[in-house]
Design a protein that fits this description.
The chain has about 375 residues and is mainly alpha-helical. The chain has one domain. Helices cover about 55% and strands about 5% of the residues. Strands 1-2-3-4 form a four-stranded antiparallel β-sheet, with helices on one face. A hairpin with a 4-residue loop joins strand 2 and strand 3. The chain is globular, with a radius of gyration of 22 Å.
C-alpha cells in the first residue's frame, strides 16, 4: 500500500506556476503560501485591507447564488462590485495565470515525511480565491459577458484541480467545498455549456477522497521508512478496511446512525479502538459530504443536458423530457416537470435521502429553469 501511495503521490516541490500564482494572489489581498515559509509573496496591508472589507459579502453572494433553486440571478452586492472595481485587473491577472500556465499550480508534498507530509498551502486562501473567481464569473454573466464569465469559472476549476491531486484529507475537503460552489454556479451561468458536460465527471472527488483516507492511515505509521508500533499497524489496517466498506456506500445508503457504529468491529485492539474512536466520528461527516456532492453534481449535469437539448431542438418542438434513474442512488430517480404554461422545466430528486446533522453547505436537489431554447451569447 505504501508503494502504491507513493507512486500516486510522488514527492514534489512547489512549482513555478504555484509561485507565480502566490505573487498575483497577493495583489488581490489573498495569501496562498504555506504559513511557515519565508521569502514567499504575501499581501501588503493595503491589499489585505481592501479584500477583508469585501470578504464576507463575496462569500455570502457566491453561497446564495450557488444554493439557488432557479436560474434567476440575484443583484451584485455593492461591496462585491466595489472590490471588483478596485481589484478587477489584479483578479484578471490571477485568472490569466491559471488559464495560461502549462502546468497547474503544485505545492510541495512528500508522503515519506509521515503525518507531517510537507507544509500545506494556505487552504483557506485557496478557497477564498475560488469564491472571488466565482463572484467575478457571476458579475460578468450579469453584465452579459458570457465569455469572460466562463473564463473565470474555468480558472476556478483549474485551481481546484491542484487540491484534488493532493494526498491530505483536509485538502480534499476544501476541494469538495470549492467544487460544490462551482457546480451550483454552473447551473446558473449563461454560456455555452456543452464542454462542461464532459468536464464534470473528470474530477473524481470520490476516488480522490478515498485515496486521501488511505494516505492518512499510512501516514499514521510514521515517515522516512518507519513501520510504526503493532498498535499503529492495526489502526492502519482497520482504516483500510473502513475505506473498503465505505466504497460500497452512496448518498442514499449511508446513514448517520449506522455510520457511527459500523467501523467499531474493525478495530479490536484497545489502542486502535481509542484512535478510531477519535478520528472516525468526525470522518463520517466528511464521507457524507463526498456522497452528497456526487448527487449535487448529477443534478447539475442533468440541467446542462436539458439546456443542450433545448438549444438543439427543432423549431416549435419541445424535447420530450422523461424521468431519469439516478446513477448515484440506485432506485431513486430525477423527475422532469413542465410548468408555467410550458415555459419552465423543473428537475427534482425523488428518492429517500437520509437526514444528516451537518454544517456543510447543501445545494438544492431541485432546479427550475426556462423550458425555451436559451439564446446563444
Amino acid at each position: 500500500m505504501i508503494d502504491e501511495l507513493e507512486r500516486r503521490f510522488p514527492p514534489a516541490r512547489t512549482n513555478e506556476a504555484a509561485l507565480r500564482l502566490e505573487e498575483k494572489a497577493a495583489l488581490v489581498g489573498i495569501a496562498l503560501a504555506p504559513e511557515k515559509t519565508s521569502n514567499r509573496h504575501r499581501p501588503a496591508a493595503a491589499e489585505k485591507s481592501v479584500y477583508d472589507a469585501a470578504r464576507a459579502a463575496v462569500s455570502g453572494f457566491v453561497t446564495r447564488e450557488a444554493t439557488g433553486e432557479n436560474e434567476e440571478a440575484g443583484l451584485l452586492p455593492e461591496e462585491v462590485a466595489r472590490f471588483l472595481s478596485l481589484r478587477g485587473e489584479a483578479l484578471a491577472a490571477v485568472r490569466d495565470e491559471l488559464l495560461s500556465s502549462a502546468q497547474p499550480p503544485r505545492w510541495e508534498m512528500d508522503l515519506t515525511k509521515g503525518a507531517q507530509y510537507a507544509p500545506l498551502p494556505n487552504l483557506l486562501g485557496i478557497l477564498n480565491l475560488q469564491k472571488l473567481l466565482l463572484a467575478a464569473a457571476l458579475s460578468e454573466s450579469l453584465q452579459g459577458r458570457a465569455e469572460e464569465a466562463e473564463r473565470h469559472l474555468e480558472a476556478s476549476w483549474r485551481l481546484n484541480e491542484a487540491l484534488v491531486a493532493r494526498p491530505e484529507l483536509i485538502s480534499q475537503l476544501i476541494a469538495i467545498a470549492g467544487g460544490k460552489l462551482q457546480i451550483g454556479i454552473l447551473r446558473k451561468l449563461a454560456f455555452d455549456r456543452e464542454p462542461w458536460l464532459e468536464r464534470l465527471p473528470r474530477q473524481d472527488f470520490r476516488a480522490a477522497f478515498f485515496w486521501s483516507l488511505r494516505a492518512e492511515a499510512t501516514a499514521s505509521l510514521g515517515g522516512e521508512g518507519k513501520q510504526g508500533s503493532p498498535e499503529l499497524l492495526e489502526y492502519a489496517r482497520g482504516m483500510r478496511e473502513v475505506v473498503r466498506e465505505l466504497e460500497k456506500e452512496n448518498a442514499c445508503s449511508f446513514r448517520q446512525e449506522g455510520a457511527e457504529r459500523f467501523w467499531q468491529p474493525l478495530f479490536p485492539g484497545r489502542e486502535a479502538r481509542v484512535l478510531s474512536g477519535i478520528t472516525l466520528p468526525n470522518l463520517t461527516d466528511a464521507v457524507h459530504r463526498v456522497f452528497r456532492f456526487e448527487l449535487d453534481r448529477e443534478l447539475t449535469a442533468l440541467v446542462l443536458e436539458a439546456r443542450r437539448a433545448l438549444r438543439s431542438r427543432q423549431e416549435g418542438r419541445r424535447p420530450d423530457f422523461q424521468d431519469r434513474p439516478s446513477l448515484v442512488c440506485p432506485g431513486a430517480r430525477w423527475n422532469y416537470r413542465i410548468s408555467g404554461g410550458g415555459d419552465a422545466l423543473t428537475i427534482a430528486f425523488e428518492g429517500h435521502l437520509p437526514e444528516w446533522e451537518t454544517v456543510a453547505l447543501k445545494l438544492p436537489l431541485s432546479f427550475r429553469f426556462a423550458a425555451v431554447a436559451p439564446r446563444r451569447p
